[in-house]
Amino acid sequence: MRFLLGRLIAVLIVAVALCGASGRASADPFQDSLQGFLADSFSDTADAIEAVAASGHPRAAVVLEALQDGRLVYSAEAKGVFVKDAAGALHDAVSGATVEPAPADTDNVRLNNRLRGLLGGVLGGLTLMSADPAQRLEAAQSVFKSRDAGALPMLDKALAAEKDGGVKRALAAARAAILVGSADATAGDRIAAIDVIRQRGGQDALGILGSVPADAPEAVRKAAASAINAVQQELAIWSAVQNAWYGLSLGSVLLLAAIGLAITFGVMGVINMAHGEMVMLGAYVTFVVQQLIRAYNPGLFDYSLLIALPLAFLFAGAVGVLIERCIIRFLYGRPLETLLATWGLSLILQQAVRTAFGPTNKDVGNPSWMSGAFEIGQMTVTYNRLWIIVFTAMVFVALLAMLRFTRLGLEMRAVTQNRGMAAAMGIRTARIDALTFGLGSGIAGIAGVALSQIDNVSPNLGQGYIIDSFLVVVFGGVGNLWGTLVGALTLGIANKFLEPFAGAVLGKIAILVLIILFIQKRPRGMFALKGRAIEA
Amino acid sequence: MFSYRTAASRPTTSRWLAAAAGLAMTFAATVAAKAEDTIKVGILHSLSGTMAISETTLKDTMLFLIDEQNKKGGLLGKKLEAVVVDPASNWPLFAEKARELISKDKVAVVFGCWTSVSRKSVLPVFKELNSILFYPVQYEGEESERNVFYTGAAPNQQAIPAVDYLMSKDGGSVKRWVLAGTDYVYPRTTNKILEAYLKAKGVKSEDIMINYTPFGHSDWQTIVSDIKKFGSAGKKTAVVSTINGDANVPFYKELGNQGVKATDIPVVAFSVGEEELAGLDTKPLVGHLAAWNYFESIKNPANAEFIKKWQAFTKNSKRVTNDPMEAHVIGFQMWVKAVEKAKSTDPDKVIDALPGIEAANLTGGTSKMLPNHHITKPVFIGEVRADGQFDVVWKTKGLVPGDAWSDFLPGSKDLEADWVTLKCGNYNKVTKKCGGQAS
After folding, report:
1. If B154 and its partner were Cys, which of A5, A17, A536, B402 is the partner (CB 3.0–4.6 Å)?
2. Which tens digits make up the pLDDT trace of B113-124?
């Protein structure tokens, strides 16, 4: 009963508010400013944002936040502006009361980049005193970016009240960023501000320090110049660290793609042109798993990759065993025909997937723990790359252990080293061949799960990796997993150190030329297998 | 380590192949004989290989348009018949398949090609056999051929307006530019034009960064952090992307992950549309831009009806539409009208009839075929929305006529294409001679 009454009152209030809005120009500046959102024109919206922020109304921040999140809607017919909550219900922008029934012709208030930037700066000023430290940090950062001198008094107030160390540093940096370029501040304040910016460092700092106007006092300009030097030196070191990290990351991707090939080509000697398609199948398994999860149990989405891993291994492995049993076993010792047969097979697999799933890219989402990035010093480390490095290391160690410590691994090594002798010792070589090929394909499948996180999931996924994979295996030394590891990392890091100087295209060519020269000198790769292995 | 001893040919295999080929030929012949009283329309789009991702949709679009036309009673009292071939993203194969369509299947017109290199590969075939090609994709310009009709955007209908928008107050008054592209003819020529245009507008060389990457580039870490670095110099920076095809998805993923927001460094793309965004989580990309002559989200009755019929035809309520599809819609209508005007499908008559033909586009205007074989189009700038569609934030006042020869390149600014009065695709206004190709 009370609930009903409450609703009735709310509707009444809204009705009165609406009448007020359409009937006469109200005296409330907040209410007036909201009218700017009705025009659906970017310049009117910009004026409205500024007016709302200036009104000082308690609901100003709520309205602007809703606008930023795309939850602010307007109705041209009812001449009203409403805030949509997460459940989709509309609240009146002024009173916050629920609006029922919702007007039929609601439309989102549209934004463009200029408005988003403006909104970020304005909201930053408004949310500097927010109770949530994360929000305060975001606010401080957006003021740092906008360098809006109007936010200075708020900054000072917030700085005095701030307890959290990280937020305090961000606030101080924002304040300094405004002061550095401000002609009103004293030279001493500006030099102190330059010092704060220098300690913060980073590319943004260079921009801010570079913007010190030429008419600034001598001392300020000198301080800025020396600060720029210091920041640049720091950045040079970080850029080398960053290149090494990117190289490691590229190397891990190469390794992941090549490691299955190191088994099928390196250990078995089968030139498997369909290797890339095994990677592609693994990626599609991930896609199917995610589709099923989205349809039946969205809560499991963050675990989708963990679920996809064993499935991709089994599926690609099974396809690999099938290929070995049906095609490759008839072609052992005939590398040219194997090459042609597996190449044809790769085309068949691609077209099969294209027919089944369509030619367009499939959206494989990143689970929350693989999205975004964090900062170490002046370097951005993205989570997906970090996890792929960890994952590659795990796959590599597991594979080594498997070859070294299990019976299957022992039998595999025996068969590849001397087939006749192994058969004489009672090993069923045909079965081992199939399992080895299945293992290589299965590992390619789980590589596909990881690569689906950074690349397109399309029927062409595998083609992009096949050449690189062969390069890595040949460069590292056929038949040696450690060679594959070193080969992949060397190529990755060399590529990333060349790229800033030579560009991506020339860098790639340079690497190719270097490998050709290297293979001339050492035809069997970096780590050639020694011993009495029987050559194909 | 390779052994060649087993490379001997096998008679059985080749006999099988011959038999299969023979069978296929007789089959094709019977089909052709049965369909004598139809007008054939050739469709030359890759259905396999790298470009299948983009071109398959265009094949479906053409089948849809031909189906619609047949429902209306066909053309000149005859039914239209689609002849689909698959050039498999293989440029020389494009030329072979084009020859097959024109001389074996005797098609009246061909709709096809996507990449500029495939268009260049079929050009000699269309000239030699005198047939008609409708080319639906935005391209680098610097070309006008008698046998080709360009229904996609020329640089002045996409690249230049996009840069103008970014320079304007609403676009963020951009002062520093990254021109990033895939390494082939379209991005290289477009960037050359843009560089000349920017410099003419007073942008200094140190404020322009040009970067090329190979096809299918997937490791964008270095380039994205270079862009961040370039963009933090205190001046508003934007990226103009002519990155094509598959490389876009990892590029945008890296942008999203490294936290490059559209409010800081907007990326305006010329090759990313609704279809490409379908493979992406667009929430981190909200606000990045694309310049096209058509967006699915544009509200008007013609577009709504087209989308409805298209989704019914493909039996997929989520199937998106995009800019090159609209180009085919316009091109097909124009061809139909020209054939009706010429009362014949004879290539010479249709080529002469086409300039001046008008056809409604899907954004509420009327496009016109110009004497230089390009068409008039509106230009829209759209911002990526969280649902993978675009919000139009800016559009040109009227329709922009396509300019075959850019006014911003030294070699081409004196050239003019006019197939009506001058009968020339590269007339030099200074030397007053046809064939003044100076690139």
Report:
1. B402
2. 998 989 999 999
Of all residues in chain A, the one with the smallest CA distance to B274 is A360
Please state whether the peptide bond connecting residue A101 to the residue before it is cis, i.e. omega within 30 degrees of 0: yes
Tell me, yes or no, whether A517 lies in a domain: yes
- Asked if the structure places residue B323 within a domain, the reply is no
Chain A contact for B275 (CB, 8 A cutoff): yes
Q: Other CB atoms closer than 10 Å to residue A105's CB: what's the count? A: 11
Find the CB nearest A203 among B212, B228, B284.
B228
Q: A200 vs chain B: nearest CA distance in angstroms?
A: 14
Task: Please give the residue of chain B at the shortest CA–CA distance from A253.
Answer: B219
The H or E element containing residue A475 is helix A463-476
Cβ of B222 within 8 Å of Cβ of A246? The answer is yes
Please indicate, yes or no, if residue A137 is contained in any of the structural domains. Answer: yes
Domain assignment of residue B189, yes or no: yes
* Residue of higher predicted confidence among A287 and A373: A287
Per the CB < 8 Å rule, is B6 touching A336?
yes
Classify residue B335: in a domain, yes or no: no
Torsion angle in degrees (nearest 10) through CA of A449, A451, A456, A461: -90
Taken as a whole, chain A contains a residue count of 536
Residues B294, B322: contact at Cβ < 8 Å?
yes
Residue with tokens 């689970």: A367
Tokens matching residue B397: 């006042």
Residue position matching structure tokens 């994979």 = A469
CA angle A351, A265, A483 (to 5 degrees): 125
Kindly tell me if the per-residue pLDDT of A2 is higher than 70: no
Which pLDDT value is given to residue B437?
52
Report the Cα–Cα distance between both ends of chain B, in Å, rounded: 48
Burial class of residue B280 (count of CB atoms within 10 Å of its CB; 0-12, 13-18, 19+)? buried
pLDDT of residue B436: 56
Q: Following CA atoms A187, A192, A193, A197 in sequence, which dihedral angle do they give, to the nearest 10 degrees?
A: 140
Spatial distance between the Cα atoms of B269 and B238, rounded to a whole number of angstroms:
11
Distance from CA of A3 to the nearest CA of B (A): 36
pLDDT confidence of residue A284:
96
Cα–Cα–Cα angle for A269, A274, A278, rounded to 5 degrees: 110
* Interchain pair B276, A361: CB under 8 A: yes
State pLDDT tens for residues A426-452.
999 899 999 999 999 999 999 999 999
Q: Which residues of B touch A207 (CB under 8 A)?
A: 232-235
Strand, coil or helix: A230:
helix
CA nearest A483: which of A498, A473, A493? Answer: A473
- Using CA atoms, how far apart are residues B188 and B183, in angstroms rounded to an integer? 7
Among A464, A81, A438, smallest CA distance to A263 is for A438
- Tokens describing residue A327: 């095609």
Closest to B214 (Cβ–Cβ): which among A204, A208, A508? Answer: A508
| CATH code (residue B205) | 3.40.50.2300
Specify whether the CB–CB gap between A81 and A88 falls below 8 A: no
pLDDT of residue A22: 44
Q: Are residues A448 and A332 part of one domain?
A: yes
Which helix (H) or strand (E) segment is A191 a member of?
helix A187-200
Q: Among partner residues B53, B249, B257, which is closest to A372 by beta-carbon distance?
A: B257
Q: In whole angstroms, what is the distance from residue A502 CA to residue A239 CA?
A: 16
d(CA B321, CA B296): 6
The domain in which residue B252 lies consists of 156-292
Cβ distance B218 to A454 less than 8 Å, yes or no, reads yes
Distance CA B45, CA B55 (A): 5
Please tell me the number of Cα atoms within 13 Å of A486 on its side-chain side: 12
Name the minimum distance, in Å, from the CA of A17 to any CA of chain B. 31
